[in-house]
From TrEMBL:
<protein>
    <submittedName>
        <fullName>NAD(P)/FAD-dependent oxidoreductase</fullName>
    </submittedName>
</protein>
<dbReference type="InterPro" id="IPR036188">
    <property type="entry name" value="FAD/NAD-bd_sf"/>
</dbReference>
<dbReference type="InterPro" id="IPR004792">
    <property type="entry name" value="BaiN-like"/>
</dbReference>
<dbReference type="InterPro" id="IPR057661">
    <property type="entry name" value="RsdA/BaiN/AoA(So)_Rossmann"/>
</dbReference>
<dbReference type="Pfam" id="PF13450">
    <property type="entry name" value="NAD_binding_8"/>
</dbReference>
<feature type="domain" description="RsdA/BaiN/AoA(So)-like Rossmann fold-like">
    <location>
        <begin position="62"/>
        <end position="351"/>
    </location>
</feature>
<dbReference type="Pfam" id="PF03486">
    <property type="entry name" value="HI0933_like"/>
</dbReference>
């Protein structure tokens, strides 16, 4: 068993941000269950990595962090920041290089199965291997996109340390609405409104993508944050209360549509065969479900925030134990908000450790 000052569990966005921000004076080890670091980072933003957004409260923290690593960023008209190279792999690489420059020892193919708190250190187990560290940063992500390694292992580890989780469910994914096979692959610009019974919960405008059993696209995925099962009710019972209304002519008023004979000409021919002119401003679709963990971009729910000092990311239950990134009950819409949470919480944990250990 090797002894370290700090053990970071998880080599994704929050774990790498922490490693890159820690002092090189520490003896740090980073344990990653995958065979490479930053695997999920490489898949974000359509392979471009939407790093943060001008609308994020602490966007400047992230911008300064990446600038300090030598990575230039740019933002688009909607405030989304990307690496200047437009390559998500470059983001993972610059973080890995920064961590290694700090002297971080990286152990790959090392999934953690158990953490034990001792009197003056933590013992971390991975199969037959074990590691000892004075401080632990748990940065294993949530449960979304299990093909990239985020399979929800961290919740069990956190619970074993005395933490509680709120209800966990997949978000930022497509919505199932029934058989739409005839318009599979069709895209249209529109406004999507989510209702629970007759009450409007949220609406988003953007490109809507029709699939064989529902709809997708950023504007649709953002709405999944509002679809939840009520306490004590089954998922099926809860979903029956939701429905969608699609305005597929958001740039046209009702008056402007009066002279038209059909929806064709605004909509594609295929879509116009399904959506009449009468329905074009409020096409109603049921919510049959949301796509599962496999296609979700983010996890809703997680470790209760009242159990964490959100300024330092240290556990209020177990001193010396830090929790960062998607494992927390923090979630945002598409556009860099969730990666902002990952960078920000990882950096905060590292800054606190730099202050108390040096």
């Amino acid at each position: 068993m090797r002894n370290y000052d700090i053990c970071i569990i998880g080599g994704g966005a929050s774990g790498l941000a922490a490693a890159a921000s820690l002092s090189s004076h520490f003896h740090t080890v980073l344990l990653e269950k995958n065979g490479i670091l930053g695997r999920k980072i490489m898949a974000t933003g359509g392979g471009r990595c939407n790093i943060t957004n001008t609308a994020c409260a602490h966007c400047d923290l992230t911008l300064d962090f990446f600038k300090s690593l030598g990575m230039e960023l740019y933002h688009d008209a909607e405030g989304r920041y990307y690496p200047y190279s437009n390559q998500a792999r470059d983001v993972a690489r610059v973080l890995e290089e920064a961590a290694l420059e700090k002297g971080t020892e990286v152990v790959l193919d090392c999934g953690v199965t158990k953490i034990q708190k001792k009197v003056d250190h933590f013992q971390i187990f991975s199969g037959k291997r074990s590691f000892s560290a004075k401080k632990v940063i748990l940065a294993v992500g949530g449960k979304a996109a299990p093909s990239l390694g985020t399979t929800g292992d961290g919740y069990g580890l956190a619970r074993s340390m005395g933490h509680e989780t709120t209800t966990i469910y997949p978000i930022l994914t497509g919505i199932e609405c029934g058989d739409l096979q005839k318009i599979k692959g069709v895209r249209a610009r529109g406004t999507v409104r989510l209702f629970i019974e007759d009450r409007l919960l949220a609406e988003e405008t953007g490109e809507i993508q029709f699939t064989e059993d529902g709809i997708s696209g950023i504007c649709v995925m953002n709405l999944t944050m509002h679809i939840t099962a009520e306490k004590g009710a089954s998922v099926r019972e809860s979903l029956q209360r939701y429905h969608l209304e699609l305005d597929l002519a958001p740039d046209f008023s009702e008056k402007e549509l009066l002279h038209r004979k059909s929806s064709f000409g605004i909509l594609s021919y295929a879509l116009s065969q399904i959506v009449s002119l009468e329905d074009i401003k409020a096409w109603r679709l049921p919510v049959r479900g949301v796509k599962g963990w496999k296609s979700a971009q983010c996890t809703a729910g997680g470790i209760r925030l009242d159990e964490i000092d959100m300024q330092t990311m240290e556990s209020r239950i177990v001193p010396g134990f830090y929790l960062v990134g998607e494992i927390l009950d923090v979630q945002g819409k598409c556009g860099g908000f969730n990666l902002q949470n990952a960078w920000e919480t990882g950096i905060r944990a590292a800054q606190h450790l730099n202050e108390i250990l040096l």
